[in-house]
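Lecture notes, unit on binding sites. The following record was shown on slide 14. It pairs a sequence with coproporphyrinogen III.
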Amino acid sequence: MTKKILRALAGETLPTPPVWMMRQAGRYLPEYRATRAEAGDFLSLCYAPELAAEVTLQPIRRFGFDAAILFADILLIPQALGSDVWFVTGEGPRLSTITDASGVKALKPAADVHETLSPVYETLRILTRELPRDTTLIGFAGAPWTVATYMVAGRGTPDQGPAHAFKAEDRAAFSALIDRIAEATIEYLSAQIEAGAEVVKLFDSWAGSLKGEDFDEFSLAPARRIIAALKERHPGIPVIAFPREAGPRYEGFARATGADCVALDQSVDPAWAAAHVQRDGCVQGNLDPRHMVTGGQALIDETRRVVEAFRGGPHIFNLGHGITPDADPDNVALMVETIRAMDPGDSA
Ligand code: CP3
C-alpha cells in the first residue's frame, strides 16, 4: 500500500490525515538533548550522519508519525556557499554578513555545495534503510528569500530589515543573491532526492514580510523555478511549499509555483483555507504549536477542528510552525491519538 503522505500529496482524501510535526526532532525530547550533547553542538550534529539519523528516528519511535523529516538546518546552504555559520546557545544562529554586490560575488558556485553537504546525503541513505516501511522520508531546504534574510543580516531578525534594505539599495545584486541560493537549492534538493528523500519541502519562513511585487519576485518566482527544475530532474517528486504568513497570498500559491501541497501557518483560518487553498490540492497544517505546551481539552478541540475543516479534501496534519522546546511530549501523543481516533472505520 502506498504511504499515506504520498497518497495525500497525490490528491487523495483519506479517512484521517497523515501526521508529522515541524521540528519534531528537537529539544522538547530528552533523547534529542542526550544525542546533541554526544555530538557536541548543533552543527556537528547536522554533519554527523549516524547521529543525525538517530535524532530523525527518535520522534518516529515515540509517536509513530507518518513522516520523518531529515535532521539538518536551512543554514547549511549559506555555509556550503562560503558564509561562516555558528550557533550561540540560547540566542540562535550567527553568520558572516553579505551587504553588497562584492559579497554576493565572493560566494562559491552552486555546484560546489556538495563538498560541504555530502554528510547530509549520507544521513538520508542511512534513513532509507532504517525507517519503518510506511514512514515517508522528507528532505528540505530553506527558500531563497528566507535564507537570504539570514545571510544579509548575519542573524535572525524580527522584521528582516537588513535584507529589505539591501533589496532597496541594490536590487540587481540582491536578485543575484536570490538566484545563487536558488541554484544551490536545486543542487542540494536534487542530491537529497537521489539519496532517498521521497518528498521535499521548501521553508519560506519569512515570506510574510514580502508584499506585492516583492512577494512575486522573491518568494513565488524562486519557488516556481526550484520546483520546475526538481520535477524536470526527478519526474513525479512531490514538493511541499511553506510561504509562512503569506495570508491571502496562500491562495493560488500551489498553482503558481507547481507545488503539490501548501503548508499553512496557524494564523490562517482552516475554513477559509479549505475553500480557497485546498481546492487546488493538498494542504498541510495548521494547529497552533502553543497547544503542545498547554495541552488539555483545548488541544483536543482544536485538533478536531482542524481535521474537520480539511476533511473534504487532501490534508496532511501538522502544526502551523515548529514545536517549541518547552512543549510536553505527552501533548504530542495526545494530538496524534486524537487525530487517529477520528477514523470513521476505527471502532475506538
Ligand atoms: O523539522 C525538523 O525537525 C527538521 C530539522 C529542522 C531544523 N531546523 C532543526 C533545528 C528544520 C526543518 C529546520 C528549519 C529551519 N531552521 C528554519 C525554517 C523553519 C522555521 O522554523 O521557520 C529556520 C528559520 C531555521 C534556522 C534556525 N535553526 C534557527 C533560527 C534556529 C535557532 C532557534 C532555535 O530553535 O534554537 C535553529 C536551530 C535549530 N534547527 C534547532 C533544531 C532542532 C535547535 C538547535 C539546538 O539543538 O539547540
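Take-home: The radius of gyration is 19 Å.
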